[in-house]
Amino acid sequence: METPLLNQIKTPEDLKRLSLDDLNILARELRQKLIHVVSRTGGHLAPNLGVVELTLALHYVFDAPRDKIVWDVGHQSYVHKLLSGRQQEFDTLRQYGGLSGFPKRSESEYDSFNTGHSSTSISAVLGMALARDLKKENFHVIAVIGDGALTGGMAFEALNHAGHLGTNIIVVLNDNEMSISENVGALSGYLSRMRTDPMYNRHKEEMENLLKKIPSIGPTVFKAIERIKDSFKYLVVPGMIFEELGFTYLGPIDGHNIMEVKTVLERAKRTKGPIMVHVVTRKGKGYEPAEKNPDRFHGIGPFNINTGEPVSASSVVSYTEIFGKTLCQLAADDERLLAITAAMPTGTGLTRFAELFPDRFFDVGIAEQHAVTLAAGLATEGFRPVVAIYSTFLQRAYDQILHDVAMQDLPVIFAVDRAGLVGEDGETHQGIYDFAYLRHIPNMVIMAPKDENELRFMLKTAQLLDKPVAIRYPRGSGIGVQISEEIKDIPVGKAEVLRDGKDIALFAIGPLVYEALAAAESLHEHGIEVAVVNCRFIKPLDVETITEYTRKTGKVITLEEHALEGGFGSAVLELLQEQGLRAHVERIGLPDRFIEQGALRVLREKFGLCRDNIVKVGLKMAATKKLVPAKMKLLSKL
Ligand SMILES: Cc1ncc(C[n+]2csc(CCOP(=O)(O)OP(=O)(O)O)c2C)c(N)n1
Ligand SMILES: CC(=O)[C@@H](O)[C@H](O)COP(=O)(O)O
Ligand SMILES: [Mg+2]
After folding, report:
1. 212 in helix, strand or coil?
2. Which residues make Cβ contacts (< 8 Å) with residue 450, sequence separation at least 6?
3. Given this model, what pLDDT does residue 530 score?
4. Dihedral angle computed from the Cα positions of residues 102, 105, 108 and 111, in that order, rounded to the nearest 10 degrees
5. Is the CB of 299 inside a 6 Å radius of any atom of ligand 2?
6. Using CA atoms, how far apart are residues 254 and 431, in angstroms rounded to an integer?
7. Can you say which residues are annotated as belonging to the binding site for Mg(2+)?
8. Which of 293, 432, 552, 587 supports an S-S bond with 569, CB 3.0-4.6 Å?
9. What number is the average pLDDT over the span 185-194?
């Protein structure tokens, strides 16, 4: 693949020497490069194909890194990376040790703010603008935010504040009518009317032309009219919502016309106060399979460039699919069950539910906090809402879970998808904190299935409970067990003893239970008998089984795909302390640092979440002297 012009771009400064024709050629080369690399590494292809011209124009008009560009979510920052000195490493995108799929300050001075979670960019640039003003410096700050990310509450909190402060910031709204799936909500409808209703543009143009034609007073009146907030303007001026919030609105403009985008950005650069530039783009632009299927090409694994088809598809169904299918089965007989997603109907496996039960399905946009409190409201009226959100994004709704759901002991079911390591998305997306942020909340029941069937059973268990319940399950394929037709419930707080043993007790949770079983088998060959307990519930923990096996062995290993701090192993330690039990405990889990990107297999091996490491820990433990697991004297009982 030849990209002669792109090869010459070492920094964004190099763009400024190019003609418009060259910029258009460069746009083509960038698209080729994106398609070529992402077809091998996987990644967020469609969002990046859509912002090629926009990124070129931004770097043409502004002076990064002096001017700060913040990419909301950051999944569309690949073109920016290619233009800011990272072409050589671009092949390593999203791989272990390679370039991040998101902006990262530690990666480049051109990345002015780390992103990954949505709707943060306007707050971030406003903070930078305030710092600039306080330091009496002079540079531009630009937030690039998608129409999907604009549905997030934080974006509105920031618009509200920015409009009030009136300082210079530029918000570029990249409007492609898509979130991951089709964008939803009243705001999306408003943007769509601005784009498509000729009334808006025609009236605006006609009025501008008319007023400008009136000699001497025309331009003055025109300016005045731009500022006056009267009812006429409501009818004819696009972007009135933003104007009312204190922004100068420019647009909508064609985001694939470099000249047009450049001209408007230059105008934005000259204009004082908060500016909103509304750019209309097409997700997946320039690659037919992605244009036709922007949802599938939003984030995609390696694929065949000619066909657009995945290179390899797992034959094992994913936990997400099992969740979606089971929920449909349960919902068919229980009208109380509702499903809520925060802009991820496909990702959370709710597409079929939405088709079967359209009145009982709610996509709230990128609004996790709202999703949870909405569920709480529904639960007060006798419904059983199932809120399906990725572990990493549910972090946003911590207070809503605690204050609005748990404190009222409401029967909301949290389907916590992508729990554990997620792989190539890296730090921002690892789902490894949910036990920690949920397990100290009173009233919560928290479970994690070892396999697909247990996920089905846990959903049934949750349906029957009159309490807040969270079920956490991982990204990707299940274990591949035979799917049971029957959906049974599980006794709450009851662990499952899968293997007896006198030397070591291995307490595991989630699919790592299968690694624990494999390790126990290997240790058996070394003459070490390991009991394997699938704990299933982290809250309530099975006190009886855990104390019984701790007493029996005096040696405990805990195993979890979660941060060790505040996780499952910590919960077991707390239980042992409360029971006054002394034992040799080793916890296997993730260390107290953010966990980098990489293939799941690579990360699991690196952090010891695999049979070999469990065996290693087991062998070492077996060689130590057995502590007498007698009751310690508890201070409180002295
Ligand atoms: C808090 C949060 N929730 C959900 C997501 C998942 N997510 C990533 S991109 C995206 C859609 C963004 O749409 P938009 O901002 O319009 O960008 P586009 O992909 O259309 O360019 C969603 C829902 C996220 N990153 N952060
Ligand atoms: C950028 C973002 O937040 C999402 O697109 C995320 O990458 C999706 O993850 P999955 O691929 O696990 O659905
Ligand atoms: Mg969009």
Report:
1. helix
2. 479, 496, 508, 509, 510, 511, 513, 514, 534, 536
3. 98
4. 60
5. yes
6. 37
7. 147, 176
8. 587
9. 88
Query: Where along the chain do its domains lie?
Result: 4-292, 319-472, 496-623
Bigger pLDDT: 454 or 195?
Answer: 454
Tens-place pLDDT, residues 310-356: 998 778 999 999 999 999 999 999 999 999 999 999 999 999 999 99
Query: What local confidence, expressed as pLDDT, does residue 197 receive?
Result: 67
Q: Which fold has domain 319-472?
A: Rossmann fold (3.40.50)
Across the range 603-607, mean pLDDT stands at 98
On the 0-12 / 13-18 / 19+ scale of CB atoms within 10 A, 228 is exposed
Q: Which CATH architecture has domain 4-292?
A: 3-Layer(aba) Sandwich (3.40)
Residues annotated catalytic, as ranges = 283, 368, 396
Closest CA to 104 of 84, 129, 131, 123: 84
In single-letter form, the type of residue at position 550 comes to: T
> Could you report the per-residue pLDDT of 127-151, keeping only the tens digit for each?
999 999 999 999 999 999 999 999 9
Residues at the binding site are: 75, 116-118, 147-149, 176, 287, 368
CA terminus-to-terminus distance, the chain: 76
Q: Which residue has the tokens 């239980």?
A: 575
Structure pTM?
0.94
Whole-angstrom distance, CA of residue 122 vs CA of residue 99: 25
> In terms of DSSP H, where are the helices of 405-496?
434-438, 452-464
Given a cut of 70, whether residue 228 has pLDDT beyond it is no
* CATH domain 496-623 topology: Rossmann fold (3.40.50)
Contact 358, 512 (CB under 8 A): no
Mean pLDDT of 39-60: 98
Residues that place a CB less than 5 A from ion ligand 3: 146-148, 176, 178
Q: What distance lies between CA 188 and its chain's CA centroid?
A: 20
Please answer whether residues 434 and 416 qualify as being in contact, where contact means their C-beta atoms are separated by less than 8 angstroms: yes
418 lines ligand 2 (CB under 6 A): yes
